[in-house]
Amino acid sequence: MTKCIAFQGELGAYSHQACREACPDFDVLPCATFEDAIEAVRSGQADLAMLPVENSTYGRVSDIHHMLPESGLHIVGEAFVRVRITLLAVKGTKLEEVKTATSHPMLLGQCRSFLTEHGIKRITGADTAGSARVIAERNKPSDAALASELAGEIYGLDVLAKDIEDEGTNTTRFLIMAREPDLSRRGEGKMMTTFVFRVRNIPAALYKAMGGFATNSVNMTKLESYMVGGQFTATQFYADIEGHPEDENVKLAMEELNYFTDHIRVLGVYPSDRPRG
C-alpha cells in the first residue's frame, strides 16, 4: 500500500516539490492550512506531513513554531529546497507578450530585477501554485505566473524563463512530521535533535542553561524565542542541536539544561539533510 504525505498548499507548491524530492514514492495530499496537514497525519489520513519551518531570506515560519509543540507529531526528517523561480505562461507564449506576473508577494519581491527589466507588472496572488493554476485557466498570453517548474508541469504551462530570482541562494527548510517518534540512528551523516524549553525564573537562567552546550562541545545550530499563552513573561525557546540524545556530550548538556529549566520537550531526532559547518 502506497504511503501518503500531506502538505499545505496546492499541487505544484514548493512544499509539494519538497515532498517529491524527499519522499518520491509517497502519494501527496494537498491541504488548505498547516493545521489541516497536521490533522491529516493525526487522523491517519496521511503517514507524514511536510511543513516549512524557515527560509534563508525571510526567516522563520512563525505559525509552525507555535504549532509544533502542541501538534502531537514528531520530527523524523528534514528537507532543504532551493526556491528556483520560473516565469510560466500558456502554451506558445513569447516572453515579449507578457505584461503581468501573478504570484505570492514573497516571490514577486524576489524577482524585482527581472520583472523591471522586462516591463512586467506585478500582481499579488494567494500563493505560487494557485497563481499558476489561475493563469492556466485564464489562458491569456499577456498574463504569466511566478512559481516552481513543477507547477508549470502540472498546469500545462510553458517555462519562459527560469532561475529569475534576485538572490541565488534562497532556500526553505522543511520538517517531516510523523505520528510516532523515531529515535534510531539513521543515515550516513550527523543526527539532529530539536526541542523546546522554558527557563526557570532565576537571574541569568538562559546564559547558564546554554553553558552546558558550550562546555560539552555541542553545536547549537538554531535558538529562537517566542511568547506562549499571550503572556510577555512566558517565553519558550526552540532549539536545534547537532547530535543524538544518547551521545555522551549531548546527555551532559541536556542534564545541565534541565537544571535551569522548568519544561523541556524533545520534538524529534532525525538525520541532517545537509552538511553543517
Structure described in brief:
With 277 residues, the chain is an alpha/beta fold. The chain has helices at 14-22, 34-42, 62-67, 105-110, 112-117, 128-138, 149-155, 205-215, 248-259; strands at residues 4-8, 27-31, 48-55, 59-60, 74-82, 86-89, 100-103, 121-124, 143-147, 158-162, 171-178, 191-199, 220-228, 231-242, 261-271. Residues 4-179 form the Prephenate dehydratase domain.
Low-confidence segments, given as residue ranges, are none
Q: Strand percentage, roughly?
A: 35-45%
Number of helices in the DSSP assignment = 9
Helix content: 25-40%
> Judging by the overall fold, what is the CATH architecture of the largest domain?
3-Layer(aba) Sandwich
Separation, N- and C-terminal Cα atoms: 39 Å
**CATH fold group of the largest domain:** D-Maltodextrin-Binding Protein, domain 2
Looking at this structure, what is the CATH superfamily of the largest domain? Periplasmic binding protein-like II
CATH level-1 class of the largest domain:
Alpha Beta
Q: Could you give the order of the helices and strands?
A: EHEHEEHEEEHHEHEHEEEHEEHE
Please state the structural category: alpha/beta
Q: Using DSSP, what is the number of strands? A: 15
**Overall average residue pLDDT:** 92
Largest sheet entry = 6 strands, mixed
